[in-house]
Write a structure and sequence with these properties.
Length: 601
């Protein structure tokens, strides 16, 4: 029998090769609950809790309609992807433990899955119960932000309030802050606490309740600006990336983990959508961690969408959309540094800087009060203007195949940070095996990043053992990353060549090279024909996309030769270049040596 891994690889690869277009395979949807009553009223508010049928913070009939409409939109958008009927294996729904988010999820599902056929349990009732999962608010760590159990985050918030931007906004709107304090009966009012006043007035206006005389259109507009800024302060304005690692990056990490999991072939996988019902701050925290937040409070029933596609070459890409207006199609969102249809591996590479590795550790406050990001600007001042963290990533951009085919290797050193002034002053330098390199280097710059690219010839790359990229600035400890090219470092792939049994061979002989490695690597697979007399002949087989299994990663390459060459005892070698290693791992097969693994079919 052909080994199961070979059959699986060939089956998957053939399906991918025949695909004419991208195929949607998985969706994550995060939405804010629908319209609600205010969370609370200010002391002089004429509309206290008794003015609202269900009290404060509860989903209104308008909010139910908004969510029902969102569910109908999702039904239309994913028709043909989701079943017409509810299938518990296809969708998982999670909500925070708040009445308004639980009810929003239920109203949404009523629009997404109106019962049909056998799922109708009562005539003329176009509704069916669908489970919505939650955890108690005290245990919520995924969907409710900002989380308040992080000393470092509290420190960052205190530092934010001393930034020039925060002070400027406070000074600019001090007149409206004073007016609100005077008219509302609140003892303490500031840029952040004005949010609750605006929320009450905004909700009342949506429900045609009268406003006090002091609430003019100009006052409401200024309160709206302060409301949006108070939300920005929680997740951005100052050290946005570090705030993200302590807040929205938690949710981003879970979403990225699921995207990666859903890209791995699994014939038993039936899940197609995860639906998350939460709050405006949840949407903002997530968008800020992706650096796509537009600075405006997400409206009721707004929706952030992630779509995972399998491309026609069997690679995967992620597309993001934001629905904040029910009258138009969702707006595409572009992850900074990537295309609209972002390759999954690039999506994971870019977002990893906003995802905490150990949040509990990162939440700790160092006694010296310095920024504790992976790379920072040390100084005696605990809050230097240029103290924003910078991160570095050094990658070999060129695949092994590209290096051999195009005779060049491209390496990219990317510096990212929130403080553009710091980035502008950084000098990026390169070394190869300890010697400085100044040729064949280009540097480009965009908002939030500087990129230095070094191009080597294949021979230069083959001779190199270590490449070092350094970022330097006056008063800053250099940030350094090293890329070491392996010299058969123990992660060598296992390579075997398989052939059909002799009686099954007709006019052609098909050889299958199976490459297995416990770790994922980039591969370039070539075939070598030798008969001992003529010069060797190199060729590429049909190489398939790596497939993940429980044991590791497998790649197959198929090569077809003539029966005449096989009978004349040609030697066929499968040469596998892996990772950044120079020397290939080789497995050979020939009829004379009788050393190929025979496969029954």
């Amino acid at each position: 029998m052909v080994p199961a891994a070979v059959l699986f690889l060939l089956t998957i690869s053939s399906v991918c090769g025949e695909a004419a277009a991208r195929k949607l395979v998985y969706v994550t949807v995060l939405f804010r609950h629908g319209d609600r009553s205010p969370v609370k009223a200010y002391p002089t508010d004429p509309h206290q809790e008794s003015s609202w049928p269900q009290g404060f913070g509860q989903l209104s009939q308008m909010g139910m309609q908004e969510q029902f409409g969102l569910g109908q939109f999702l039904r239309k958008r994913y028709k043909g992807f989701l079943n017409d009927f509810y299938d518990r294996h296809e969708i998982y729904i999670r909500s925070t433990d708040q009445d308004r988010t639980l009810m929003s999820a239920e109203a949404n599902l009523a629009g997404l899955y109106p019962p049909t056929g056998h799922q109708v349990f009562k005539e003329n009732l176009m509704w069916q119960p669908i489970p919505v999962h939650t955890v108690s608010q005290s245990e919520e760590r995924l969907l409710s932000f900002p989380l308040g159990d992080c000393p470092r985050y509290e420190q960052l918030m205190n530092e934010t309030k001393r930034t020039e931007e925060f002070i400027n906004v406070t000074n600019t709107y001090q007149d409206i802050i004073d007016l609100v304090k005077k008219k509302t009966g609140l003892n303490e009012i500031n840029v952040e606490s004005v949010l609750s006043v605006y929320d009450a007035l905004f909700c009342e206006s949506r429900h045609n309740m009268s406003a006090p005389d002091w609430v003019t259109p100009d006052v409401m507009e200024k309160l709206r600006v302060l409301n949006d800024f108070s939300i920005q302060v929680k997740f951005g304005v100052y050290k946005q990336q570090e705030k993200s690692r302590l807040q929205g990056g938690i949710l981003l990490g879970e979403i990225v983990k699921n995207l990666s999991k859903m890209s791995a072939p699994d014939q038993n996988q039936r899940l197609k959508m995860i639906m998350l019902s939460a709050h405006d701050t949840t949407v903002v925290a997530l968008q800020a961690s992706l650096n796509v937040f537009n600075g405006i409070e997400p409206p009721f029933a707004s929706c952030q969408i992630f779509e995972l596609y399998r491309n026609n070459d069997c690679s995967f890409s992620v597309s993001m959309f934001y629905r904040n207006d029910s009258t138009v199609e969702p707006y595409p969102l572009q992850l900074p540094g990537c295309s609209l249809d972002c390759p999954l591996d690039e999506f994971m590479r870019i977002t990893k800087f906003s995802i905490p590795e150990d949040r509990d550790k990162e939440c700790q406050v160092h006694s010296e009060g310095r920024d504790k990001a992976p790379f920072s600007t040390p100084t005696e001042d605990p809050m230097p203007p240029q103290g924003a963290a910078v991160s570095m990533e050094l990658n070999q951009v060129s695949s092994i195949k590209e290096i051999f085919n195009y005779n060049q290797a491209v390496l990219k050193c990317t510096i990212t940070g929130q403080d553009q002034n710091v980035l502008n002053q950084i000098q990026i330098t390169w070394q190869i095996d300890g010697s400085p390199v100044t040729n064949y280097i280009q540097t480009t710059q965009s908002a939030g990043s500087r990129v230095s690219t070094m191009t080597l010839t294949r021979d230069e790359w083959m001779r190199s053992r270590e490449v070092r990229c350094s970022a330097k600035k006056d008063g800053m400890t250099p940030v350094i990353q090293i890329l070491t090219f392996c010299e058969r470092d123990g992660n060598n792939p296992e390579v075997t060549v398989h052939v059909l049994q002799e009686e099954d061979i007709k006019n052609e002989v098909t050889l299958v090279c199976l490459v297995f490695n416990p770790v994922q690597q980039d591969y370039y697979i070539t075939w070598l024909e030798e008969d001992g007399n003529k010069p060797s002949y190199y060729a590429e087989g049909i190489n398939f996309t790596p497939v993940k299994s429980q044991q590791g990663y497998s790649v197959a390459s198929v090569y077809t030769t003539t029966k005449d060459k096989w009978d004349k005892s040609y030697t066929f070698s499968c040469q596998t270049f892996s990772g950044s290693c120079k020397n290939p791992t080789i497995s050979t097969a020939s009829k004379a040596q009788n050393n190929a693994v025979e496969c029954e079919i």
